C-alpha cells in the first residue's frame, strides 16, 4: 500500500460570494472533495459557471474558501515553497505586450532566480517545444490568441513544476495546436508530472485524462476513470477486417440469435475528424507549403522530468557554483594595489640613470643644474602630499 500523500486533496471545499449586505449571493463551489495522486492527469469538467475557475483559484491560494480544507503537497496552498513547485496557465494569457517571446520567458525565469545558463537553455527548448522558435523575436502583443496560448504554456513550464494547472489550455488553438498541446500533456504525465486540466471541451479531456470529475452548480455530479464513466455496459462491440457482404450477413444472423431485439447494426468504422485533418496538414507540410503561423512543435525538453525535491536543491547548488562570481573574494581584493598609492610610489621611486644624448659643450653647464633643481622640487611636493607632518629640510631653505 502506497503511503505517498496526494498532491491535491480537498475536503468539503466551499466558496460562497456575498453581496454588499454580506448576504449569500452565489455558491460557486459546494462540498468539493478531490484527491489527485502524483503522476495523474486529472480533468475538471463542467459548463461555464460551474465553479471550475473558482476551485482552481482556491487551489492556488488566490481565493480563501468559505469553509473546507485544502492540501497541496501536504501543505497550505499559500505556502511559498508550494507555489514554487506549481506551474499555472490561466484561462486568459496575461502577457506583457511589448516583450517578445524570449524576453517574456526570461522574465518569468528570473522570478524563479534561475542562472543565466539555465534560463538560456530552457527558453530555447521551450520555444522549440511549442513551435515558436521562428517567431521568438516578435512582440507577444502581435501574436494571435493561439500563439499566445503556446507561449503561455511555455511560461507555465519554465520552472519545471511538479504540479501543472491548466485552465482551458486549448482555448483559441487550431486543431494542429490542440493536438500538439495534448501530446505535451500526455508526455508530461508519462514523466511523472501531476496535471490538473480544467476545460469544457470534452474531446480534449477524453484524450488525455486518467480520471475526471464533472461539476454543475458548484457541486460534483460524477467522478471516476474515463473507462468507468464512458463504458456502455449494455452493449457489445466487435471490430474486424473488412468482410464480404455474404460474410457480414452470416455474422449478422449468428449474432441475432443472441440479441434480445434481434437488431444488429453493421457499419465501417469512421476515422476521427481530428486525425483526418492532421493528415491533410502533414501532407501540406511535406510539400513545404509556406505559412506565417506557428510551426510544427518540437520534442519535450529533457529538463521537464519528475525529480525529487532534494535533487532539485542539489542541482540548483551545482548551477550556482558553476556561475562566475560577481564579487571578488577579500584576498583577491587585497592583492590588487591601490591605484593612487601605486602612482605615488612610482613617482617617489629613485630615478634610474637615463642615458641622455650627449649635449653640446654650451648646454652641459646650463641645463644640468636646472634639471636637478626641478626634480628635487617635484620630489619635495610629493613627499609633502604623502607625509604632510614631516617637513623636509629643503622647506626651510630660502
User: Quick one: overall form?
Assistant: extended
Structural class: alpha/beta
Main sheet summary: 6 strands, mixed
Widest β-sheet, arrangement of strands: 5-6-7-3-8-9
Q: What percentage of amino acids are in beta strands?
A: 15-25%
Helical content class: 25-40%
Total number of helices = 14
Uncertain runs are 325-340, 392-398
Give me the strand/helix succession: EEEHEHEHHHEHEHEEHHHHHHH
Structure overview:
By secondary structure, the protein is of the alpha/beta class. 39% of the residues lie in helices and 16% in strands. The protein is built from 14 helices and 9 strands. The protein has helices at 52-59, 80-83, 101-111, 116-129, 145-157, 175-190, 202-208, 226-230, 245-256, 273-286, 309-322, 330-335, 339-348, 364-386, and strands at residues 8-18, 24-36, 41-45, 67-72, 86-89, 163-167, 194-199, 211-216, 219-225. A 6-stranded mixed β-sheet has the order 5-6-7-3-8-9, with helices on both faces. Strands 2-1-4 form a 3-stranded antiparallel β-sheet, with helices on one face. Strand 1 (8-18) and strand 2 (24-36) form a beta hairpin. Helix 3 (101-111) packs across helix 4. The chain is extended and about 130 Å long. The relative contact order is 0.11.
Amino acid at each position: 500500500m502506497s503511503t505517498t500523500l496526494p498532491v491535491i486533496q480537498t475536503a468539503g471545499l466551499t466558496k460562497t460570494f456575498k453581496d454588499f449586505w454580506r448576504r449569500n449571493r452565489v455558491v460557486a463551489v459546494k462540498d468539493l472533495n478531490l484527491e489527485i495522486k502524483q503522476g495523474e492527469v486529472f480533468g475538471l469538467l463542467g459548463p461555464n459557471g460551474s465553479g471550475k475557475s473558482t476551485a482552481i483559484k482556491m487551489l492556488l491560494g488566490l481565493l480563501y474558501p468559505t469553509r473546507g480544507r485544502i492540501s497541496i503537497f501536504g501543505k497550505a496552498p499559500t505556502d511559498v515553497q508550494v507555489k514554487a513547485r506549481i506551474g499555472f496557465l490561466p484561462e486568459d494569457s496575461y502577457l506583457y505586450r511589448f516583450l517578445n517571446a524570449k524576453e517574456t520567458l526570461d522574465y518569468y525565469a528570473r522570478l524563479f532566480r534561475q542562472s543565466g545558463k539555465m534560463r538560456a537553455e530552457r527558453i530555447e527548448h521551450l520555444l522549440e517545444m511549442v513551435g515558436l522558435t521562428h517567431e521568438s523575436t516578435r512582440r507577444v502583443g502581435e501574436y494571435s490568441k493561439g500563439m499566445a496560448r503556446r507561449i503561455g504554456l511555455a511560461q507555465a513550464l519554465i520552472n519545471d513544476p511538479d504540479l501543472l494547472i491548466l485552465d482551458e489550455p486549448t482555448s483559441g488553438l487550431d486543431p494542429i495546436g490542440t493536438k500538439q498541446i495534448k501530446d505535451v500533456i500526455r508526455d508530461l504525465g508519462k514523466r511523472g508530472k501531476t496535471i490538473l486540466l480544467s476545460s469544457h471541451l470534452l474531446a480534449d479531456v477524453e484524450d488525455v485524462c486518467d480520471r475526471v470529475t464533472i461539476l454543475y452548480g458548484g457541486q460534483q455530479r460524477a467522478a471516476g476513470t474515463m473507462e468507468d464513466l464512458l463504458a456502455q455496459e449494455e452493449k457489445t462491440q466487435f471490430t474486424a477486417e473488412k468482410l464480404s457482404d455474404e460474410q457480414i450477413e452470416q455474422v449478422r444472423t449468428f449474432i441475432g440469435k443472441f440479441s434480445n431485439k434481434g437488431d444488429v447494426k453493421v457499419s465501417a468504422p469512421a476515422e476521427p475528424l481530428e486525425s483526418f485533418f492532421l493528415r491533410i496538414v502533414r501532407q501540406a507540410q511535406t510539400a513545404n507549403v509556406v505559412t506565417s503561423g506557428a510551426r510544427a512543435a518540437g520534442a519535450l525538453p529533457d529538463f521537464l522530468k519528475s525529480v525529487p525535491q532534494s535533487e532539485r536543491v542539489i542541482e540548483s547548488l551545482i548551477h550556482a557554483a558553476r556561475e562566475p562570481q560577481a564579487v571578488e573574494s577579500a584576498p583577491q581584493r587585497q592583492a590588487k594595489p591601490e591605484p593612487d598609492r601605486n602612482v605615488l610610489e612610482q613617482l617617489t621611486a629613485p630615478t634610474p640613470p637615463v642615458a641622455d644624448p650627449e649635449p653640446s659643450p654650451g648646454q652641459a653647464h646650463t641645463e644640468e643644474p636646472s634639471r636637478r633643481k626641478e626634480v628635487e622640487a617635484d620630489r619635495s611636493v610629493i613627499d609633502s602630499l604623502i607625509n604632510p607632518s614631516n617637513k623636509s629640510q629643503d622647506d626651510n631653505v630660502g
